[in-house]
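Ticket #4471: structure output looks truncated?

Reporter: J.K.
Steps to reproduce: submitted the chain below (339 residues) through the standard prediction queue, then opened the result file.
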Amino acid sequence: MMSGFVPGLQLSRDFYTEVVRPLVGAVPHSAALIGAGSEVLAFDTERSTDHGWGPRVVLFAAAGDVGRVREAVERGLPTVFGGYPTVFGGGHGVVVADPGAWLGERLGFDPREGAGVLDWLSAPWQRLAEVTSGEVFHDGLGVLEPVRAALRWYPADLWRYVLAAQWRRLAQEESFPGRCGEVGDGLGSAVLTARLAREVMRLALLMRRRYPPYSKWLGSAFARLSGAAELGDALAGAVAAGDWRERERHLGRAYERVAVLHNRLGLTEPLETSTRAFFERPFQVIGAQRFADALGAAVTDPVVAALPPVGSVDQFADSADLLTRPQGCRAAAGAVLGL
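Returned output as attached by the reporter:
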């Protein structure tokens, strides 16, 4: 690895200003570091430089200008910038594209034409984060800033719907770690506890209007939430515990924390935030379905209210091979949601 690491966002900002913009000249364009790459979400470290990493810019031009801009860039790029090669991973780091084509490829739809229910619920969280994070260096086309503002977060009723689906994921399994432990299945109890901890982390991010990134960066994104230290300690305690009763105790602390946060959002009437027995069984749960039901009841949009309670594509599918194919996500979400 190279010493003197420079974060990719800073490197790419300088690359655009000093190299790419002069090459583009007077051609109207927009430029940003958005899309794939750990540096877009500011998770890159010196380790990131060992493959497929270097000065990058996504350059947007009108369809009729894409060819000549690409040619000008390829003709004028230096071999090295800031101590890093400008050619890596099989090509150089400047993508030149028409905005509509690029957005359609990343999201499965062009948000400049508006975003409907299927658009929102079929767009993977990672892709939404990639388009709304990073940095716009120049928006001469007047495209990127409006798109990013429009996609910053879900409309209110869709937010309630996605939160309800996330609470429902907890409701479906919150008693299982205890039940597994009771019958001597310590491994099963531990696996379920880790799974529930993941869902609580994603719920906390959604509550704070953050698109949960894919698994490699989920913990890092969660750790950046202000005020989440106590919740993180509870989840870490649950995952590290060696006994199901101890797991349940720590999970209960975590559930109560997110229940309090739910009430602070004001999206429903306040709900009781204490854990309680799971029917007549000796397992403590938060009763997560209460929160899902309250959120669902607060939805006023009839289209959203009529949706099956499965949520967005990230909430009913967990295959990287699907979630990296926006058109596949769109087809799957359309089928599952009946849209």
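Triage note (M.O.): checked the attachment and the full token line is present. The chain is about 55% helix and 10% strand.
Status: closed, working as intended.
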